[in-house]
């Protein structure tokens, strides 16, 4: 027959990955799913030879609990649940099994929350000072004054930029909500205007080639070294941008749209971390009003 009825869980996960996930998703998502599948199989070697229709919901929940005990973050457990649920939904449509044992799995409340820190105001000043003497330091300032994801930054082209309206159109993003017009503050626009127009892409490395993930990685490694702040990544700049706006009292719905999120609650939970100086200022307001 075209498909063996007695596929193992491992065989089906990789078949599903290479046929369905590959056809529907960006390479980055494919890699994320592949890593998640390998992690599940590493912690559940029996899945390599257990037939697809064998596991019960109980065994699937045990798998999630086991990953939690292995100290994987909540977001990783959610990925494991998503992979299993989607793979089984597809298997049911292909009549390879009858029920989805991953349909109602719970993430234990004790699961570790992964938090990305924002720079405090003082740390941001240190980073901006370090960026001033780096040949690609203008990338850092641009990230801090905008809210781009690295994956969006690489894709910025001159044709997406409207100098009169001071906007950039994000045409490719991680989510449908990420496709959006982004207003630019004067400082970000000045950096953009200063770029040599040698490529269809706005930002190029010192060699004149489009920016790659490696270029940005080396840049934030230099920033870490120059400032002693070992947690700096491109994503930290995005958090810092959001946090500075929260400190200035931005409307949360507006912030959510600027970041390209579907859900305001997600924006608040992940990005709005006002720093200690700001909290002190806010407490001072209580003194004034009483």
Description:
The chain is 55% helix and 3% strand. With 290 residues, the protein is mainly alpha-helical. The longest helix is centred in the first third of the chain and has 20 residues, at 74-93. The protein is built from 13 helices and three strands. The protein has helices at 9-24, 27-43, 57-69, 74-93, 121-131, 137-145, 150-155, 186-193, 213-227, 234-247, 252-259, 264-271, 276-289; strands at 161-162, 167-170, 180-183.
Shape: globular
Distance between the termini: 79 Å
Counting DSSP H or I runs of 4 or more residues, the number of helices is 13
Q: What's the count of strands?
A: 3
How helix-rich are the residues, as a percent range? 40-55%
Oligomer status: single chain
Major sheet: order of its strands?
1-2-3
Low-confidence stretches: none
Order of helices and strands: HHHHHHHEEEHHHHHH
The averaged pLDDT comes out at 84
Largest sheet: 3 strands, antiparallel
Broad structural category: mainly alpha
What's the gyration radius in Å? 23 Å
Strand content: under 5%
